[in-house]
Amino acid sequence: MGGDSGPRVTLPAILSFARQNQDIQLVIVGDESQLATSLPDSQSQLENIRLLHAPDVVEMSDKPATALRNKQQSSMWKAVELVANGEADACVSAGNTGALMAIGKFLLKTFPGIDRPAICKTVPTAKGHSYMLDLGANVECSSDQLVQFAIMGSELSCALDGSERPTVSLLNIGAEAIKGNEEVRLAATMLSENPHVNYLGFIEGDGIYRGDADVVVCDGFVGNVALKVSEGVAQLLASTLQASFKDSQYGRILGWFARPLLRNWHNKFEPGRYNGASFLGLQGAVIKSHGGTTAEGFISALQVAKEQVDKSIPQRINERLARFFD
Amino acid sequence: MGGDSGPRVTLPAILSFARQNQDIQLVIVGDESQLATSLPDSQSQLENIRLLHAPDVVEMSDKPATALRNKQQSSMWKAVELVANGEADACVSAGNTGALMAIGKFLLKTFPGIDRPAICKTVPTAKGHSYMLDLGANVECSSDQLVQFAIMGSELSCALDGSERPTVSLLNIGAEAIKGNEEVRLAATMLSENPHVNYLGFIEGDGIYRGDADVVVCDGFVGNVALKVSEGVAQLLASTLQASFKDSQYGRILGWFARPLLRNWHNKFEPGRYNGASFLGLQGAVIKSHGGTTAEGFISALQVAKEQVDKSIPQRINERLARFFD
After folding, report:
1. What pLDDT was estimated at residue B35?
2. Is A292 within a domain?
3. Among the listed residues B256, B293, B277, B287, the one whose alpha carbon sits nearest the alpha carbon of residue B89
4. Taking residues A66-72, what's their average pLDDT?
5. Does B237 touch chain A (CB under 8 A)?
6. Pick from A124, A178, A258: which is nearest to B258 by CB?
7. Which of A178, A225, A251 sits opposite B225 (nearest CB)?
8. Closest Cβ opposite residue A265 in set B136, B206, B240
């Protein structure tokens, strides 16, 4: 039910994903009557989807604490509950991030050694892609938390990309050891002494997109700003490029010929392509889709969920943490 | 002497700027013998440039405290000193940012009411441009400092763009009042009660490039990351676009025809175009050029200095602060 457009976007995505992944059972949690009427007859025949009624909805404006107290009958709560009860392997939502985090933490709990989950996403780089966390779950982070993020991000990179010793960097405002705030500096010391993490040192903002590290660790405030600034720059550059191809007759003709090439380029960095952030550290897979995503973007988020389950990400993170805290 | 390439980049820029601005007297501070040999004979005839010898140099790796203690004979120190003594109206350096800040603060002092200067830069937006501060001078900022930045940024926008009541936003990770850390939330309360600032509310990372506010205020850690992330994304997008025009014979031919258009687009966001950050809050104009800039970029930094002097930025900021603290 969540996201800027609700089932109008999520439902077509779910149906398309269900058709392409007949081995996956999908439970659509939400207002049954609304979902039933939105569901095309032909599609409701799909054997691998079923509806689960939830009379209530977490609003985008709900505070996490409010959602936790009053929204046990919401689609979000019930979807996370399916994971907590073992009835589902993963939950995907385009709804309120703070509420999803709070409900996830309450129903699923974090693994031992993890204070709070971190939001982690794949970002495109010149070398392929990297993982970045935290992207907004933790406004202020202790050095201990930054170290936890580094361990979880490492394991994610191992699991998804098969890299044996993925490189980890801390996002900072300079490469020198004297730069940055106390938490970052202390985390750097802890990580450089930690045999479980292949710590490279500090990374600056531009290093992320050069692909200088496989895993980039930062607090949620900085990470969220970095992510949204990136989206903003990409949008500005794409729209300005488009405009410059429309500026003149010459440009318009060129633009027509260049269209496949430009579309290809644009798609490569289209935010929807990388949609689907995971809450690492929860004892279960919870995936957050961007609220303003398209159906294609929501399919990406569903694929992230599938990947998390296929590669047993939560379990692997737990095992890695257990080794670390041993 | 500063920057990644030293006089090899700065000198041609200074000469070109001197030729174009015959009414401006330029003092080139640095190692006289090195500068004299680098200076083409024809150019040393320019009447509006002179050399000032400085036997020492602040290295990029020098800590601010070291520069302050041991580098009184450096080109950076002597250049700032010219401003402090009233012998120059502005100082431009491509050198060590932290040292420039420390020496600037020591020799020029900040205006009453300003704890520490803020680094401020023009950023391109969908609507034209905005001003963003702090970009790295203050890793952690109190709410008082954020308010000081808002006032200084406002005055800068008034002075440079002639806007009467420029809009000011605080960079945050959500538009809601409950988001963000304590300093940002407290600063928001202070700004919304402040008649001297046209405070709009919070802005998210993507809002900067949409041009949602004329002035964007944040702490130096977040601002520096945002700036460098922006550069990284722009580089990645530009290089990928270039690559996709080289991927095929078809692309190469198209690319040839599209070259002027693409160059135009690229130039619009070329970091050099916006090179030149000012230390707002100092009792004098000090401009920091990107260390890795080109000669063209260094000319931009010189132009920023000219603008600061022409529009009496430091004096205007002082007057605005005096009204505010009255």
Report:
1. 86
2. no
3. B287
4. 95
5. yes
6. A258
7. A225
8. B240
At residue B74, what is the residue type? S
DSSP 8-state secondary structure symbol assigned to residue B111 = P
Q: Does A65 touch chain B (CB under 8 A)?
A: no
**Shortest CA distance to B9 belongs to which of B71, B95, B67?**
B95
Is residue A241, in this structure, part of any structural domain at all? yes
Do B145 and B270 fall into the same domain? yes
CA of A46 vs chain B CAs: smallest distance (Å): 39
Interface test with B, best of A130, A171, A221, A250 (most B CBs within 10 A): A221
Tokens of residue B140, six digits: 């952690």
| Domain assignment of residue A19, given as a range | 1-108
Is B171 domain-assigned? yes
CATH code, B195: 3.40.718.10
pLDDT of residue A168: 97
Across the range B16-23, mean pLDDT stands at 94
Count: domains in chain A: 2
User: What ipTM does the predicted assembly reach?
Assistant: 0.87
Chain B window 1-60: which residues touch A at a Cβ cutoff of 8 Å?
none
Same domain, B85 and B210: no
The model's pLDDT over A226-248, given as tens digits with 9 standing for 90+, comes to: 999 998 888 888 888 888 888 78
Angle at B113 between CA B107 and CA B118, to 5 degrees: 65
Structure confidence by residue, pLDDT tens digits, A24-40: 999 999 998 888 887 77
Q: Does one domain contain both A104 and A120?
A: no
β-bridge pairing A49-53 and A26-30: parallel
Name the residue of chain A whose CA is nearest to B171's CA. A225
Query: pLDDT class for B44, splitting at 50, 70, 90?
Result: low
DSSP structural state of residue A40: -
Alpha helices in A193-248 (DSSP H): 205-210, 220-246
- Same domain for B70 and B196: no
pLDDT tens for each residue of B81-123: 999 999 999 999 999 999 999 999 999 999 998 989 999 999 9
Same structural domain, A84 and A164 = no
Domain boundary among B86, B108, B130: B108
Token digits of residue A170: 């801390």
pLDDT at B271: 66
Q: What residues contact B109, with CB distance under 8 A and at least 6 apart? A: B282, B283
Q: Are residues A124 and A271 in the same domain?
A: yes
- According to the model, what pLDDT value does residue B263 have? 80
Instruction: Provide the token pair at B308.
Output: 């600061």
Instruction: Inform me whether the pLDDT recorded for B34 exceeds 80.
Output: yes
Give yes or no for A253 touching B (CB within 8 A).
Answer: no
Q: What is the CA radius of gyration of chain A?
A: 21
pLDDT of the residue at A177: 60
- Same-domain check for residues B232 and B159: yes
Average pLDDT, chain A: 90
Distance from CA of B225 to the nearest CA of A (A): 5
Last residue within a domain, chosen from A92, A108, A124: A108
Residue A220 forms contact with B (CB below 8 Å):
yes
Indicate if B231 and B322 belong to the same structural domain: yes
B208 part of a folded domain? yes
